[in-house]
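Can you give me the bound-state structure? Components:
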Amino acid sequence: MEKPLKVLHASLNNRVMVELRGGRGYHGTLDGYDVPHMNLVLKNTDEIINNETVAKHNTIVLRGDNIIYVSP
Amino acid sequence: MEKPLKVLHASLNNRVMVELRGGRGYHGTLDGYDVPHMNLVLKNTDEIINNETVAKHNTIVLRGDNIIYVSP
Amino acid sequence: MEKPLKVLHASLNNRVMVELRGGRGYHGTLDGYDVPHMNLVLKNTDEIINNETVAKHNTIVLRGDNIIYVSP
Amino acid sequence: MEKPLKVLHASLNNRVMVELRGGRGYHGTLDGYDVPHMNLVLKNTDEIINNETVAKHNTIVLRGDNIIYVSP
Amino acid sequence: MEKPLKVLHASLNNRVMVELRGGRGYHGTLDGYDVPHMNLVLKNTDEIINNETVAKHNTIVLRGDNIIYVSP
Amino acid sequence: MEKPLKVLHASLNNRVMVELRGGRGYHGTLDGYDVPHMNLVLKNTDEIINNETVAKHNTIVLRGDNIIYVSP
Amino acid sequence: MEKPLKVLHASLNNRVMVELRGGRGYHGTLDGYDVPHMNLVLKNTDEIINNETVAKHNTIVLRGDNIIYVSP
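Here's the bound-state model for the whole set.
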């Protein structure tokens, strides 16, 4: 058994795909998270809306509230 | 009587169907969960949107907030 | 006076109808619940969307968040 | 001054109208409630959707989350 | 400085307008409230939907969740 | 660094613009707030819906839940 | 590893882009935040709705609830 936070922790410094509500995706390197909110810090992130990369962010703080999934 | 978390625990390492709000389904092997958020870890998961498999994920962390049901 | 949880408890092993937001109904045998979330476990459940049975589930864990009512 | 829960308590065994989000009304005899969720138990209830009685329930547990008002 | 709850308290026995989400207004005499939910009890209330009085309630318990404002 | 509540406190007795979800704006004199809900009391307030002043309120209690921003 | 709040803290006095739900963006200098709500204070802020600058705010308090991301 792997707890969700353990999976996040093991994904630090790896590329992850974060899907948010509203058709938003963020593909970047996981640099941090907090507990219990699951707010995330990503580096070198592509922001993908409706399957199109619309922006790049060196650093981005994603609020955990809107997360549907994190896929390492 | 079986408590919901006991059912989740008994489903570890089994295939489950997770239905989320927004017409999203995740069919995979339950590898972990947390309490009380019901965030889940699935392995070898088919992501199904509007009855179509749109992606596969080796590992995925699903946020519990959006869950409608888990069906073992 | 009957408290809501007492009604749920008295309904264990009985058929109940659970209405969720989004036009979803679940008709099954109540096998468990938790407090205070009101997550439910149902057995032998018909999943009814817009008045049509779309699936059957041997066991299903319904998240309490989406419940409109439980009718024993 | 009458606190909301005191009004609910005084309405036990009386007919009440409960309006939920989504155009749903429940007209029945208040048989119970809990604190702080305001989940309700009604008996002999007419379920009214868009001003039409669509079902009758001997006993129903309404989740407090969706309540707009209770009118004794 | 007047705290919100002090304003509510000073409005007891006075006519107030309560605006809820979904285009609903309730114009009545404030008879009670609770903390921290801001559930309200109104007396002799006109229920106003889309600027039309659709019902009158001798007593009504409004759930605080849906309140946009209370205007004494 | 100025904490959000310090900015609100410094705005007491000043005119502020409060934007709520749903295209609602309230332009008035800040007379109070509470912690942690951020419920507000405004005086002499113009209620602005879709850029039109639709009402004036001597005193209004705005529930913090719906606030998008407060601009002093 | 950088925790989300550490990234916010390091962004004080720098320009940040804050994306809110509902197609709203706020581009300004981060002047404060609180924990755990993530309410923010921005200075010299452009308010951007659907990619158009619709207003400027000397000081603005953004409620954390609606935040999708903060990009330093």
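A couple of observations. The first helix of chain G runs from residue 4 to 10. Chains G and E do not touch (no CB pair under 8 Å).
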